[in-house]
Amino acid sequence: MQVAKGVKLPTTAIGCDCRGNCLNSHDCSCAKLNSTDSKHYDFPYVHRDGGRLVEAKAVVFECGPKCGCGPDCINRTSQRGLKYRLEVYRTPKKGWAVRSWDFIPAGAPVCEYIGVLRRTEDLDNVCDNENNFIFDIDCLQTMRGLGGRERRLRDVSISTIYNSDRPDDQRVENTPDYCIDAGAVGNVARFINHSCEPNLFVQCVLSSHHDLKLARVVLFAADNIPPLQELTYDYGYELDSVHGPDGKVKQMACYCGAEGCRGRLF
Q1: 241 dihedral zone (left: phi>0; alpha: psi -120 to 50; beta)
Q2: I want to staple 180 with a disulfide (CB 3.0 to 4.6 A). Which of 135, 212, 228, 248 is the partner?
Q3: How far is it, in rounded angstroms, from Cα 182 to Cα 133?
Q4: 4-24, pLDDT tens digit by residue?
Q5: pLDDT at 157 over 60
């Protein structure tokens, strides 16, 4: 990930005191952030198949650079880079697409969305109108179900990362403050297409800091994915939510081919 000028990543995460690998979720301060119920502290991942996310969450708290555990800790599952052989290929109607040569089990991290971390308000100064590789970091909006997003506010330690006493946090806007621009710099994730019935889901992950507005964006397998099946996720557009420079609503047809396709991307 590259960081644009004027954007500063916080380094406020203190880290756990575990040594080697984090084994007890009741002793790991990072694991505790994934729940507010002291009777149900648990790691978000299980050890099977190299680490699998148990369920989609509002946010996943992983161990970070200030933690005492090592790189093989179960609570660093999404930080280990590409595990599966991914192929970028051309499709008849959708342009580029991505598939895996390997079987991907449900809950496995597939890849992180990589690009240049920017302020959303700066996009007009650095990007052209044809840049379709902008990923809004909309974790706060998703947690609250804004703009047609599926609400994901669950049992996590929200107070740790979202201090409502701060004046600038009194309101949660529909437009996220930050985005990832993969137009010129990116990885394989930029070629993954939308589907109305996707086999991947978007998960916000925090490790080196606890600011949701700057969370890492990781794509996980929603189902068991057989080899050579196209990888897709829901882009999350609300219909009639995209406007052109003239203020008119823009529309784009959806060619995902899913049985429940809504016919339009936006």
Answers
A1: alpha
A2: 135
A3: 5
A4: 998 998 877 789 999 989 999
A5: no
SS3 track for 195-258 = CCCCCEEEEEEECCCCCHHHCEEEEEECCCECCCCECEECCCCCCCCCECCCCCECCCECCCCC
Q: What is the pLDDT of residues 181-197, one digit of tens each?
A: 999 999 999 999 999 99
**HSE (CB half, 13 Å, CA atoms) of 217?**
30
Indicate the pairing of strand 52-53 with strand 116-119. unpaired
pTM: 0.88
Six-digit token pair at 143? 């947690």
Q: What is the mean pLDDT of the chain?
A: 86
Enter the tokens of residue 3: 């960081």
Q: Is pLDDT of 52 > 90? A: yes
Q: Are 194 and 232 in contact (CB under 8 A)?
A: yes
Going by C-alpha positions, the residue among 79, 120, 47 that lies closest to residue 203 is 79
